[in-house]
Input
Amino acid sequence: MKSKLLVALGVATLFLLSMSVSVFAHHGTGISYNMKKAVDVKGVVTKFAWLNPHSQLYFDVKDKDGKVTAWAAEMRAPGNLTAEGYTRKELMEKLKPGTEVTVTGNPSKSGAPVVVFIKLMTADGYCLCNNGGGGAVPKEE
Output
């Protein structure tokens, strides 16, 4: 009886330890991105992906010499975007390929063309604002 209890306790302990490690492993945003700095990047949407655990925005940025660099913005999960009042249909329409955008985000520490999303403005004035790294920003109408 005592050995069964010890085995059960051991299994429960291993389970709890494995759960805590995976929780901490996922949240490395502050390690990969400069959360104290925000940059504005202007480009043209190539793809918006409504995905878990993070939606993704891909866009091309042209420099003053005409060289195009592919950028990405790590966004909130679909559940968070929905809770903030956005729908998949709305974002797929507003962020379709060819849409001009200005993305504000926390840049990659490595210098890679990637940001943690804070806010986005389209050329026609649509604003997508959420709690991406830089703190809560209310949705603007």
